[in-house]
């Protein structure tokens, strides 16, 4: 009997603190798979922002530098500039990157800083108890929009992948989801493109993950998956908004996946 | 026969694996409560398991390992033995 799926080596054998059904754990795993795949464990630096992803250093066996709320892209700029041979990524929520850190991410993107931004968009401030974020859907009830988000008062959901893609410094910008195994596989492919972008020194790479926060959505994990399918994906269309790299090679991983699926 | 293993002691019962298994070989066991206080997912050692690894792909806690009788290509991303 052959083991064909196991924990990636870079993912430490520690239980996550995440709530049941939270997608942060899948993002952590995909990151570790990619770090292992490209052999980056000894020369990777992660920069988590403030939010539920903040304990990244407890789970991923690489160097980590904590950033003040919203400033992860500024901290990563410094790290990448003094250690250009290191693989540098930030790991930020929508409250972190899309609210307090908007200025930092736009300028890092515009400067074409050669690092990767992992953006986990769950449409609320998770860690602090579910306040409205700039990415909250219209009509979505949160602790600070109990009657639902109203555009007349609160504006509209912020589309960061679309916003950053046109900037000249941006080499890769895409949005993926994690609510079904098929989407997880697509997300892995997109993450690989983002890693390649940095490894080929093409500039700023940005990957947005649509992610569930069942606790603050006041939904069960099952209802959260439905909510993503029905509402989140309508407000946040998936896709690659920019990719300056060469088209995927013939030996793309999807072939292997399909081979496995028909077994 | 293919099979999976689930580390029940760390399962939080989100049941994403239950949704993922097309052959309905995984269920949440209401009789059992693990140390974290959740009803864990359990695998009913079914002959029907194809080793497709969809359950493992979706497990947010990364608790599932997948074994194949005649393993073809190991998933490229995994450092599985
Ligand atoms: C300067 C500063 N302001 C406010 C906070 C409080 N705070 C902690 S986490 C957080 C929001 C996190 O939300 P998000 O980035 O969406 O991450 P999630 O928890 O949803 O993954 C806030 C506002 C802080 N820690 N520092
Ligand atoms: S509060 Fe939300 S984002 Fe934070 S761990 Fe729980 S489900 Fe995940």
Describe the model.
The complex is a heterodimer of chains A (about 260) and B (about 80). Chain A is built from eleven helices and ten strands. Chain A is of the alpha/beta class. Chain A has one domain: Thiamin diphosphate (ThDP)-binding fold, Pyr/PP domains (Rossmann fold, 3-Layer(aba) Sandwich), CATH 3.40.50.970. A seven-stranded mixed beta sheet of chain A has the order 3-2-4-5-9-8-10, sandwiched between helices. In chain A, strands 6-7 form a two-stranded antiparallel ribbon. In chain A, helix 4 packs across helix 5. Chain B has about 80 residues and is an alpha+beta fold. Chain B has one domain: Alpha-Beta Plaits (2-Layer Sandwich), CATH 3.30.70. Helix content of chain B is about 10%, strand content about 20%. Chain B is globular, with a radius of gyration of 13 Å. The chains are: A alpha/beta (about 260), B alpha+beta (about 80). At the A-B interface, strand 1, helix 1, helix 8, helix 10 and helix 11 of A face helix 1, helix 2 and strand 4 of B. Strand 1 of chain A pairs antiparallel with strand 4 of chain B. The site of iron/sulfur cluster has 12 residues of chain A, from helix 9.
CATH class of chain B: Alpha Beta
Q: What's the architecture of chain B in CATH terms?
A: 2-Layer Sandwich
**Envelope shape of chain B:** globular
Order of helices and strands of chain B: EHEEHE
User: Could you say which structural class the secondary elements and strand pairing of chain B correspond to?
Assistant: alpha+beta
Which molecules other than protein and nucleic acid are bound? thiamine diphosphate, iron/sulfur cluster
Top CATH class of chain A: Alpha Beta
Strand proportion of chain A, as a percent range, falls in: 15-25%
């Amino acid at each position: 009997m052959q083991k064909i799926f196991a924990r990636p080596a870079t993912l430490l054998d520690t239980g996550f603190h995440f709530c049941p059904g939270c997608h942060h754990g899948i993002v952590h795993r995909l990151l570790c798979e990619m770090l292992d795949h490209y052999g980056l464990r000894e020369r990777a630096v992660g920069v988590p922002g403030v939010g539920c992803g903040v304990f990244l250093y407890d789970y991923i066996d690489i160097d980590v530098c904590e950033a003040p709320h919203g400033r992860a892209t500024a901290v990563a700029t410094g790290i990448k500039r003094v250690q250009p041979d290191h693989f540098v990524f930030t790991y930020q929520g929508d409250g972190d990157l899309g609210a307090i850190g908007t200025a930092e991410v736009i300028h890092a993107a515009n400067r074409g800083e050669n690092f990767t931004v992992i953006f986990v968009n769950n449409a609320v401030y998770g860690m602090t108890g579910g306040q409205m974020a700039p990415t909250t859907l219209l009509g979505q009830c949160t602790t600070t929009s109990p009657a639902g988000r109203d555009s007349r008062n609160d504006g509209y959901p912020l589309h960061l992948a679309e916003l950053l893609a046109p900037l000249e410094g941006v080499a890769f910008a895409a949005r993926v989801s994690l609510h079904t195994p098929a989407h997880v596989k697509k997300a892995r492919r997109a993450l690989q493109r983002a890693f390649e972008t940095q490894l080929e020194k093409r500039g700023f790479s940005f990957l947005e993950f649509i992610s569930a926060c069942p606790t603050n959505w006041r939904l069960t994990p099952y209802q959260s998956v439905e909510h993503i399918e029905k509402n989140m994906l309508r407000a946040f269309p998936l896709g690659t908004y920019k990719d300056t790299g060469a088209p995927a090679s013939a030996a793309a991983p999807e072939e292997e996946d399909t081979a496995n699926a028909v077994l | 026969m293919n099979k999976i293993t689930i580390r029940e002691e760390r399962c939080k019962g989100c049941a994403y694996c239950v949704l993922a298994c097309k052959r309905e070989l995984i269920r949440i066991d209401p009789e059992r409560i693990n140390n974290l206080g959740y009803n864990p997912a359990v695998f009913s050692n079914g002959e029907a398991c194809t080793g497709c690894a969809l359950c493992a792909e979706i497990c947010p806690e990364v608790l599932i390992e997948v074994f194949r009788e005649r393993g073809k290509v190991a998933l490229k991303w995994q450092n599985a033995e």
